[in-house]
């Protein structure tokens, strides 16, 4: 009997609604892939949507309550919860990327994104434990589903998925995380600041993986990377990709100033089916 394939492991992650069980499934999938217990094959389709428990309740972004500036425990809990939700969805995003599009790429694509998925699971676990230290847990507050809506909108096109999810939405986390760290540390929450610093370092690599594989597809099809990325952002992203940017982090991730300048200078991007859904890390 042949080994189960990587798509079945990805589907198992997406089909697990319980957050801590999803973390375990993600880590197990990564261990099995590294150990060679999963075939590089894609017989199992990905679901249209991952399983959810109903906690947290999902609201439209416009109805999300304001979180404040970390000056109180309540505000810090709200910020940690929002970040935990981003990481929870990011687990599904990584494994959906592998299971849905892995056949379009060399095997090292799976190596990269399975590792990303395992790191997103670790990030969620760190934030969940930090919430627990405040007497809270993931699911206590509402969240929105904008990140998964971005995945749905790019579900049939791997180059669009890479252009939008890691290279726009996750890259936004590189810009805003330094100010979040400062807010926590100013409020005396050094532990949360250290967690966010750890996550921020990993997220540079995650965005870099998106850039690298986007460039791989551009090279394979002989299209211009800068023009193609800017065109895909204009097509699939609602709003303006605007500064301030964390130039050093973006540069480390491979998002060049040439790429960013072209978008930042465009203040008339058409409104299509994606909104600016990410205000933090992934």
Domain unit count: 1
Q: What structural class results from the helix and strand content?
A: mainly alpha
Give a short account of the largest sheet.
Answer: none
- The share of residues in extended strands comes to under 5%
Compose a concise summary of this entry:
The protein is mostly helical and 282 residues long. The protein has one domain.
Protein architecture, described:
The protein is mainly alpha-helical and 282 residues long. It has one domain (6-41, 60-264). Helices cover 63% and strands 0% of the residues. It contains 10 helices and no strands. The chain has helices spanning 6-14, 19-34, 73-101, 107-133, 146-153, 158-186, 190-221, 225-236, 247-253, 257-264.
Secondary structure elements and pairings:
Blueprint: H1 6-14, H2 19-34, H3 73-101, H4 107-133, H5 146-153, H6 158-186, H7 190-221, H8 225-236, H9 247-253, H10 257-264
Helix pairs in contact: 1-2, 1-3, 2-4, 3-4, 3-6, 4-7, 5-6, 6-7, 6-8, 7-9, 8-10
């Amino acid at each position: 009997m042949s080994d189960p394939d990587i798509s079945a492991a990805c589907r198992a992650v997406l089909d697990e609604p319980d957050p801590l069980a999803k973390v375990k499934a993600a880590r197990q999938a990564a261990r099995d892939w590294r150990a060679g217990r999963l075939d590089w094959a894609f017989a199992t389709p990905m679901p249209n949507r991952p399983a959810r428990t109903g906690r947290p309740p999902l609201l439209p972004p416009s109805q999300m309550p304001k979180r404040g500036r970390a000056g109180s425990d309540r505000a810090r809990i709200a910020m940690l919860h929002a970040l935990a939700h981003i990481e929870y969805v990011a687990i599904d995003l990584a494994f959906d990327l592998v299971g849905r599009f892995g056949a379009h790429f060399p095997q090292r694509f799976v190596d990269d994104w399975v590792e990303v998925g395992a790191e997103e699971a670790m990030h969620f676990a760190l934030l969940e434990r930090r919430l627990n230290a405040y007497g809270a847990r993931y699911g206590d507050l509402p969240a929105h589903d904008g990140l998964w809506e971005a995945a749905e909108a790019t579900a049939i096109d791997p180059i669009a998925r890479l252009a939008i999810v890691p290279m726009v939405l996750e890259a936004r986390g590189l810009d805003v995380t330094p100010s979040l760290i400062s807010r926590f540390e100013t409020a005396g929450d050094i532990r949360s600041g250290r967690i966010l610093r750890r996550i921020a370092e990993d997220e540079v690599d995650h965005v870099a993986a998106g850039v690298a594989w986007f460039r791989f597809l551009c090279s394979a099809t002989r299209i211009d990377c800068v023009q193609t990325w800017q065109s895909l952002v204009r097509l699939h992203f609602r709003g303006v990709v605007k500064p301030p940017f964390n130039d050093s982090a973006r540069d480390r991730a491979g998002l060049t100033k040439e790429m960013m300048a072209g978008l930042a200078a465009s203040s008339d991007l058409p409104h299509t089916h994606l909104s600016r859904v990410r205000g933090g890390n992934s």
